Amino acid sequence: RMATVLFSDVHGFSNISKTDNAEQLIDDLDRFFYHFDEVVKRFHIEKIKSVGDIYMCAGGIPQKNRTNPIEVVLAAFEMYQYMQSIKLQYEDKQGWNLRIGIHTGPVFCNSNTVNSKKKLEIWGDTVNIASRMEASGQINKVNITGMTYELVKDYFVCQYWGKMPVKYKGEIDMYLIEGFRPHLSINGLGVKPNQAFRTRLGLIRFDDLEETVLNMLEEKLPKNLYYHNLKH
Could you give the 3-state DSSP secondary structure of residue 106? Predict the structure, then answer.
């Protein structure tokens, strides 16, 4: 019911691929995506796929949680900062710009993959809107929809960018993530989260853990317990 989908795209990749060494280009792209894999793994986000220069992942699946909008934006921020540092190595610095689009909402998935090694796939309006957000978003910015904004605005400074037309959905509000809120960032600079940020995020994770434990008790406690039961 609540997953956060991220699409990223290396803006200008097609132009680079026409002029640069093809093998070196693929090696570089693999290196970038390997780093992205490490980032999403650290934030408990599920990588869905990478096709060409497009990278797709989603939080809140296959195990649901309340923190996935914040964690996906955190991952997006790290991806962007990594690409900014890496592209300084290239002569064509404009060729390695990153564009990121994020949307939160319900998704359909092949849920039989939760306990198997089969590749997880998702689809639905949330996926389409996230893809549209990336395609129409600002370069070198983390572009989010109004739905995601409502869930992360207490943690990040966001700039309203306007409305984006989406087929069959009308117009959707767009926001740009500018950085962390000053009181939740180191030295108030908005670049890196501080302990206050991590504490607030940890409290939300605690709520998820509490719900998980209560569900386990409800499902697995013997029915003949009349005192030491879930209510107790």
Answer: coil
